[in-house]
């Protein structure tokens, strides 16, 4: 799963998917302490606190190389620049943190593992014909 999470090297996220980390994290910490404060300050300029009032901006999942599938996602995590809680939490366990560090150091090895994992995942419960569906919008069933 850590290897497949590297897919977050490309794409964008709506501010509403992570704004709780910036503004309403908890009673003792209004901002998630696992996020770099300078990174959070930058995100707040792009994602105002009341962004859900009909306007939900998007930001890149990977600020270093947003249009390239590479291992920079893992370097972002090491620098506490994980956008989503699920991404940054990969550093909270010693076993997953070691994988993150290895993937950050060895981009070519990560790329090979990622390709193999994608192929393997492609064989999981493949639905064909009328059983399957290609969604026009990922958020909604057609």
Task: Tag the structure with descriptive keywords.
142 residues; 2 strands; 37% helix
List the secondary-structure elements in sequence, H or E: EHHEHHHH
The strands making up the biggest β-sheet line up spatially as 1-2
Give the terminus-to-terminus CA distance: 28 Å
Number of strands: 2
**Tally of contiguous helical segments:** 6
- Please summarize the sheet with the most strands: 2 strands, antiparallel
- Mean of the pLDDT scores? 91
The amount of beta strand, in percent, is under 5%
The radius of gyration computed from the alpha-carbon positions, rounded to a whole number of angstroms, is 17 Å
Structural class: mainly alpha
Portion of residues in helices? Answer: 25-40%
The protein's oligomeric status is: single chain
Spans of 5+ residues with little confidence (pLDDT < 50)? none
Tell me the overall shape: globular
Protein name: peroxidase
EC number: 1.11.1.7
InterPro entries: Haem_peroxidase, Haem_peroxidase_sf, Peroxidase_pln
Family: Belongs to the peroxidase family.
Structural notes for this entry:
It is an enzyme of class 1 (oxidoreductase). Ca(2+) binds at residues 62, 65, 70. It catalyses: 2 a phenolic donor + H2O2 = 2 a phenolic radical donor + 2 H2O. By secondary structure, the protein is mostly helical. It contains 6 helices and 2 strands; from the N terminus they run E-H-H-E-H-H-H-H. It has helices at residues 19-22, 37-46, 72-78, 85-88, 94-105, 107-121, and strands at 12-14, 58-60. The chain has a two-stranded antiparallel sheet with strand order 1-2. The longest helix is centred in the last third of the chain and has 15 residues, at 107-121. The model has no long low-confidence stretch (mean pLDDT 91).
């Amino acid at each position: 799963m850590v290897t497949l999470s590297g897919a977050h090297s490309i794409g964008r996220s709506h501010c509403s998917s992570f704004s709780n980390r910036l503004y309403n994290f908890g009673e003792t910490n209004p901002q998630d302490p696992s996020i770099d404060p300078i990174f959070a300050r930058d995100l707040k300029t792009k994602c105002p606190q009341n962004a859900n009032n009909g306007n939900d901006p998007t930001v890149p999942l990977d600020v270093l190389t947003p249009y390239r599938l590479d291992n920079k996602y893992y370097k972002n995590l090491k620098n506490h620049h994980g956008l989503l809680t699920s991404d940054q939490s990969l550093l909270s366990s010693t076993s997953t943190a070691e994988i993150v560090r290895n993937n950050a150091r060895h981009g070519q090895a990560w790329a090979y593992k990622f390709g193999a994992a994608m192929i393997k995942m492609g064989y999981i419960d493949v639905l064909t014909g009328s059983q399957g569906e290609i969604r026009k919008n990922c958020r909604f069933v057609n």
